[in-house]
Design goal:
The structure is a single chain. This protein is mostly helical and 309 residues long. It has 12 helices and no strands. Helix 3 packs antiparallel against helix 7, helix 6 runs antiparallel to helix 12 and helix 8 crosses helix 9.
Amino acid sequence: MSNMNSEGVWWMNMQWISAVPLRRGHIWAMLHGVLQAAQIILLSKASLLMNPWQTMFLRSFGLLFLVLFISWRASERYTIIDLTGNIMFAVLDATAMGMQIVALALMAPSRVSAIVSNLPLPTSILACFLLGESFDVLHGILASVNGVGLVLVCLSDQTDKSSLQGVIYSFGSLLGICLLLIICRGLAHRNSEDPNLLSFMAGIGGLLASIASLPFGPTWVFPSSADGILLSLSVAAIGVLIFFTLTRALQTENALVVTAFITIAIPITFCYDLIFINVVNVSWSKVLGSCFIIATTVLLCIRSAIDVQ
């Protein structure tokens, strides 16, 4: 009897180990969502100390070190299509992040996050048309409910007319991120996606954009305090982690699942604003919207796991 029990335990352990790779993409996507929230909070704090383009420079500078890890031998098989995709990735990332940083200088992190993290519906529709990824009725229902949740999260902020410019910049950033994810997933389909190369290209794009803004903006003044230096280093470091987790997630999951996990950033930034900044009020719309976001994320995860099996 004891042998049977031990064999049963061994079999269950083996089943768990063999199932881990099926959930690896979910883990990377969830981690990316948490890091996305952390990046939004850090960029918001950095906007109080320096101008947006200086923040962009710091965020992009850390990505340059990934040139040491690029697989140059693998890049020999890349075509002009792959090169174009990497260049477009860099341009879109610089554009989207520039708009997001400006928006964070105008609005609270939770309000910017509610817009720029509203990725599942637009990204999945673009992936369906541009990449031919599946988008059935259940995906449509879940994405729609997720979108309703995001609208509810934003409802209590709609009366703040002074943030209209920040909203426009946030929606511009949203469009850029959606297209960026499509390009990243497209390169993964072609088996020509090097996470380190993509991150390095994004760093180049951000540096060029920030340096080009020097003649038109205020003089850069880097923080001299210990807190300011630590914040600058954190902005640079989290940029690397953001790209690493994103590309890893997109290698094993479709765009819809990854973007669903990114919406985790919305309730995290909302809690940050509520606890540390006290700029948002608890309302039924925000609570209900956050519940919709979390529920659709869990259901998408379950649906993806069923499809794999």
